[in-house]
Amino acid sequence: xxxxxxxxxxxxxxxxxxxxxxxxxxxxxxxxxxxxxxxxxxxxxxxxxxxxxxxxxxxxxxxxxxxxxxxxxxxxxxxxxxxxxxxxxxxxxxxxxxxxxxxxxxxxxxxxxxxxxxxxxxxxxxxxxxxxxxxxxxxxxxxxxxxxxxxxxxxxxxxxxxxxxxxxxxxxxxxxxxxxxxxxxxxxxxxxxxxxxxxxxxxxxxxxxxxxxxxxxxxxxxxxxxxxxxxxxxxxxxxxxxxxxxxxxxxxxxxxxxxxxxxxxxxxxxxxxxxxxxxxxxxxxxxxxxx
Length: 291
Fold this sequence. Notes:
Elements: H1 3-11, H2 16-27, H3 29-32, H4 37-44, H5 48-57, H6 63-73, H7 80-90, H8 94-114, H9 118-130, E1 133-138, H10 143-155, E2 159-162, H11 169-173, E3 181-186, H12 193-204, E4 208-213, E5 226-229, H13 242-256, H14 260-277
């Protein structure tokens, strides 16, 4: 079973002491994943045996195996300045940049697929299919995959809303949030506080909550019913959203084939409207904008 799915499925069955350990790792993982079992136990205020039993509950032979997996799987949250300095030190020619970035994105996609939790993906599609309303939030760099998800969900006939903080309107849009609604948050290190606030609010209102993020230990996971993870490592001053966008594409494609007849009808209606309003042009010589 993929590591992400194993962790998400087991969290609800952990003892209170084991949950405290997991929460400490989530809140302090840059330090926690390098602590020994005894050091971690002292930080949390539990016994070393409790730390070992946590590792075993998650399917590892012992703490070293869990620690190794955490180190490998977690995004190193370097500052943008430090990451750019590292890139400058290792890249000397413009061609090197292209090759390096594309190779890292290929690796992000491969690792995301390798660890992919199909059961959780199916749960996400089911929630999107049954939700009366879907609210999507992704800020800063994560706004791009969030915009894609909300836009194409509307193409599929869903009542989807992209949440954008402004002058308080975002919270007005969320008025009346309830159990028939779904809120999807997209965020990667360094996580945006507003995204966390929205997911926490949604969970309190008993809405379904989903997260697309880098790890089951992401702060978003605290409030989510399901978590889809995407690798985002990029040796640059920015994060890579290639794998996250690919996950969004997969969700939308899976949604489109749930009710193919309905999907085709909705898309035909939209295509007719776009043609009537001149949204797209097929001839560069035609007038590009119609009043």
